[in-house]
Amino acid sequence: QTGYAVSGWYILKTTDGGNNWFTVNNDTAYCRSVEFINTQKGFVGSFNATSPTHKRILRKTLDGGASWTDLTMLIDPLARGGICGLAIPDSNTIYGCGNYYQDSAYIVKSIDGGNAWSFIDMKMYAASLIDMYFLNKDTGFATGTGRLPLDTAVILYATNAGETWTYKFQN
Asked: Are strands 22-36 and 3-14 parallel, antiparallel or unpaired?
C-alpha cells in the first residue's frame, strides 16, 4: 500500500496503493530516482538544477520521508554531479549511477545500508548512465549513453558486484 515516486523537485508518497499521492518533500535539487528498502528507510538521487549551493545529490530517510539526511558529502566528489538511477537489491547493498547530462559515467555503491560509499569510474564503458537494476547484490544492469563521440545507447551487465561490466546491447 505504501509507495514513493519523484517528480522534478518533489518526493511523493502514497499510503493507499497509489490512489492518492501527497508531497513529503520539495527542494531545489531535481529528483531523479527513489528507492526504499522498507516503508521507512529510503534513498533519493538528485542533481542540482537551480543553484550550486543546493547540492543534495543523495539523501536518506529513516522515517518514511518525514525528514531527509543529506549524504552528498559521503560520496566521491566525482559523483556529486548527480545520481540519476538507484538500485537496492538487498537491505545492505545500494547502487547509484550518473550522470545523464555530462561526460562522466560513474556508480556509487554502499554495502552497509548507506553509511559508507565507494566509487566506480565507468568512463571506459559509457559517457553517461541514467538508470540501473540489480537482480541481487552481484548481478545487475546499467543503462546510458555509450562512449563519445558515438553517442550510442548502451546496456551494461555485471556479475561481480559492479567490478567489471560487459556490453549486452549497443546501438
From this structure: antiparallel
Q: Which of 20, 22, 72 is nearest to 46 (CA)?
A: 72
Contact 131, 143 (CB under 8 A): yes
Q: Which cell numbers in the block locate residue 168?
A: 549486452
- Res. 116 pLDDT band, cuts 50 70 90: very high
Cell of 157: 551487465
Q: Taking the CA atoms of 114, 35, 76 and 55 in sequence, report the sign of the dihedral they define.
A: negative
Lowest mean pLDDT among 55-59, 73-77, 127-131, 146-150: 146-150
Q: What is the pLDDT of residue 151?
A: 72
| Spatial contact of 144 and 99, defined as CB atoms under 8 Å apart | no
| Strand duo 69-70 + 118-121: pairing | unpaired
State mean pLDDT over 27-45.
89
Q: Does 96 or 30 have the greater pLDDT score?
A: 96
Q: Residue 79 to residues 2, 9, 17: CA-CA distances in angstroms?
A: 30, 20, 34
Distance CA 169, CA 160 (A): 19
CA distance 44 to 31: 7
- Which of 83, 94, 82, 92 lies closest to 134, judged by CA? 94
